[in-house]
Write a structure and sequence with these properties.
By secondary structure, this protein is an all-alpha fold. The chain is globular, with a radius of gyration of 21 Å. The model has no long low-confidence stretch (mean pLDDT 89). The longest helix has 27 residues, at 221-247. The chain has one domain: Orthogonal Bundle (ABC transporter involved in vitamin B12 uptake, BtuC). Helix content is 75%, strand content 1%. Strands 1-2 form a two-stranded antiparallel sheet.
Length: 346
């Protein structure tokens, strides 16, 4: 049953299986195991980034396409929910309209970008997507009447998802929103796992390994690359919608920032490209480090106050330095990512 649910793409490593089970169980019971607003926000962010990074792995890891426009589709999903909820009101119908409109826009944009740009060489395609993403971010900032400009949009959701909505003594609208994000993330991840293990996914991997050979045996590589681009964009859009639903806010820096694109690339490399499971392990480790590394360094700095140099190195202000060191070490010791290395140990 589990093998069928995972599309027969099992972790193939006992250590990796245990790690993934711990992550899934931790996220499933996070509201009860890790009380507090910050812990719940971190857990929700991990779930959203699992979907976002897995969608990018579908593009980079399985098809071999380097795109810098992924956050554009992420932002479209978030803005779809934000604009619809702001202009039309907080109801389930408006939420569905916002998500549907965002998915449709992303589908059209990714189709146009794919058809007109995927015929060029990889580096030129990457530059085209970078330019398109930068232009879209500027446009979102300037259309203040629609997007809220630099201030962004605050909005309300259906009453059941509001924190004040009480469902029972231990359950409220905030927890319902979290489990909506959790179930959606699980379903979307399983859908992507099914796609990459289908005949379509096998063709994508063949194109990644040798696109000339794939073309020679009869596959229209441009069509398959375009479809991969469209699918990745749609899943990224849905991840953006989940972000907006969780935050009840969206702005250009929240979902369209180039820093998010850098984070996606780092997580894909850390977790392991072409595995999808790498998105789960990589997103969890990266976001936990991003969220709690400063707190750990503050404890270390206080404990080493008698050693001036060490205390200065452990200052919370230098958390980005140590995050970079952790990334370099992970690439050095896990060149194929965490998932690739654990599978190789088997």
């Amino acid at each position: 049953m589990i093998a069928r649910l995972l599309s027969h793409d099992l972790p193939r490593s006992r250590v990796l299986t245990v790690l993934l089970l711990l992550i899934v169980l931790g996220l499933a019971f996070a509201p009860f195991i890790f009380p507090g607003a910050k812990a719940l926000n971190v857990a929700a962010k991990i779930l959203i980034f699992i979907v976002l990074v897995a969608s990018y792995d579908l593009l980079l890891g399985y098809t071999g396409i380097v795109s810098f426009a992924h956050t554009m589709f992420f932002g479209i999903g978030a803005y779809g929910v934000a604009i619809a909820s702001t202009r039309m009101g907080p109801s389930w119908a408006e939420l569905a309209v916002g998500i549907g409109a965002a998915v449709l826009l992303s589908l059209l944009l990714s189709l146009v970008i794919g058809l007109f740009s995927l015929r060029v060489r990889a580096i030129f395609y990457a530059m085209i997507t970078l330019a398109v993403a930068a232009a879209f971010q500027t446009l979102a900032s300037q259309l203040a009447e629609l997007t809220g400009g630099e201030d962004g949009l605050n909005f309300k959701l259906p009453e059941m998802l509001s924190p004040a909505y009480e469902i029972g003594p231990y359950f409220n609208g905030k927890l319902l929103t979290y489990y909506l994000v959790f179930v959606s993330a699980v379903v979307l991840f399983l859908a992507m796992l099914r796609i990459v293990n289908s005949p379509f996914g096998r063709v994508l991997q063949a194109i990644r390994e040798n696109d000339f050979r794939a073309e020679a045996i009869g596959y229209r590589t441009v069509i398959f690359r375009t479809l991969s681009n469209v699918l990745a964009a749609v899943f990224a859009t849905l991840a953006g919608a989940l972000l907006a639903i969780w935050l009840r806010y969206n702005g250009a820096d929240t979902s369209l920032s180039f820093e998010i694109m850098i984070d996606i690339l780092l997580i894909v490399v850390i977790g392991g490209m072409g595995t999808l499971y790498g998105a789960v392990a990589g997103a969890t480790i990266f976001i936990l480090a991003q969220s709690y590394l400063q707190d750990l360094m503050a404890l270390g700095a206080n404990a080493t106050q008698g050693i001036p140099l060490l205390s200065a190195l452990l200052s919370p202000d230098r958390w980005l330095l140590w995050l970079g060191v952790l990334f370099v070490l992970s690439v050095y010791f896990f060149p194929t990512g965490i998932v690739g290395r654990l599978r190789a140990w088997k």
